[in-house]
Amino acid sequence: MRTFQPRNTSPAEAPEFASFFTPDGLAQRVDSRHLGVFSIPTAGETALRIVAGQYRRRKILSPPGNTTRPIPDLLKEILFQRLGDLDLVAGRKVADLFAGTGTIGLEALSRGARSVVFVEAERRVHEVLKKNVERIGVVDDCLCWKTDMLRCSFRPKNVDHLLPFDLVFCDPPFAMIPRLIDRSPLFRSLQRLARKDTTSDEAILVLRTPTESSFDIPDDWNKMDCWTIQDMDVHLYARSTSPADPANRFPLPEEDIPDNQGDSQ
């Protein structure tokens, strides 16, 4: 088990890079070898959309109310720019956990990901997710799996071509992060996720948390980097490839009986 403690890094510790966007500084990146600090001025709310790639500017539907917590477009652009610099998106088989309406997974597809399995438990949100996949026209490249990430096996039936995952986005409700401790449901889920038949040897886990959060991560995942983007931290982990593969000690949950035909796309 690894415990992550927040590290305070000031912009003065890192060299500056040019703006990702317009000359007047819509966004600026300040980067260091181990931690990127990103700052974006507040600009009014905009409609959710795919930012770049094959499906650029396609709108993404969202349910009314506060059911989901999608990442804003500007922050999404910075995140995917950084992942693209590391060649972590194109050609990858992706899992989008706590997928919401699919903003992250659809962005990955637009930027060249091979496929995406969306995992979303809430029925109304899952219906909107399916509509987004249909409207953008990527049904053949996706599975919309209505299941609980905290109880599932991460191996939906009859879609072996979508496995194993090379890139996993995990965006749990921020209130869940303080409870990410040894033997908690989310901790156990990350252990199951590291099974060798679920994620590839080169798999990368991208975990989004509030800034200055403390939490535990299973030894199945090795810390690579952490970037601060406005009010969130993005943690990158590489799957451990130790011969013991400790994730395989844990059986699949008995509750996991996915219904691909009824609730999935």
Descriptive notes:
The chain is built from 5 helices and 11 strands. It is an alpha/beta fold and 265 residues long. The protein has one domain (73-263): 3-Layer(aba) Sandwich (Rossmann fold). It has a 9-stranded mixed beta sheet with strand order 2-3-10-11-8-7-4-5-6. Strands 1-9 form a two-stranded antiparallel sheet. The two termini are 35 Å apart. 41% of the residues are buried. The model is unreliable at 8-46 and 254-262 (pLDDT under 50).
**What order do the strands of the largest sheet run in, or round the barrel if closed?**
2-3-10-11-8-7-4-5-6
| Alpha-carbon Rg, integer | 18 Å
Structural category is alpha/beta
- Summarize model confidence as the mean pLDDT: 81
Tally of contiguous helical segments = 5
Number of strands: 11
Largest sheet entry: 9 strands, mixed
Task: Please give the CATH architecture.
Answer: 3-Layer(aba) Sandwich
Brief digest:
By secondary structure, the chain is an alpha/beta fold. It has 5 helices and 11 strands.
Which key terms come to mind for this protein?
alpha/beta; 11 strands; nine-stranded mixed sheet; globular; 18% helix; Rossmann fold; two-stranded antiparallel ribbon; 265 residues
